[in-house]
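Request: Could I get any protein with tokenized structure?
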Amino acid sequence: MAVDRAALIAQLRRVFHTYGYDGTTLSRISAETGLGKGSLYLQFPGGKDEMAAVVLSAEGDYFYHGLQALQEAGTPLERLQGFIQRLRLDPARRQEASTLDVYTMGEARERFGHHMGEASRRWIAALQTVLQDEGFSAECARQRAVDAISRIEGTRLLCRCLDDWQMYEQLMDDLPGQLLQPVC
């Protein structure tokens, strides 16, 4: 049986983002994918760690595609809007943990935490650059970038707890303009 690699990675992502790294077992993966453990090891000889790394790489591709919007031509507002648009959550993913959640808790932190630190530093730097292009000082731009990421991640968690995504959608709509408010 031929395995569609992209579909398999999407199935793996759902398991890791539903149960976290520590809660993801080969039994859960097998149940989600319909593949036996032997078939999974054929696809991923490194087992769960390799599967998690492949999912993280795919998530990184998605994330860096979003960051590219911050580097494209346009006004800072247009670049921020493009970034937010690219990273809006598909409704099917709303009950899943964020990539930062999955890869910074438990055993995953030791294995993948450095990747999450690097991704966070890139996220901050990319937002900071756009804000500096708008005329904010480096210090002010960095603080706004950190606040924005905290708001995005925190609001996502709160919305998952409340099972109400209006706050998240409102944040995504308002955040570009809020980041560019002149008071620092």
Remarks:
- The chain has one domain: 5-88+96-179.
- Residues 106-133 form the longest helix (28 residues).
- The chain is about 80% helix and 0% strand.
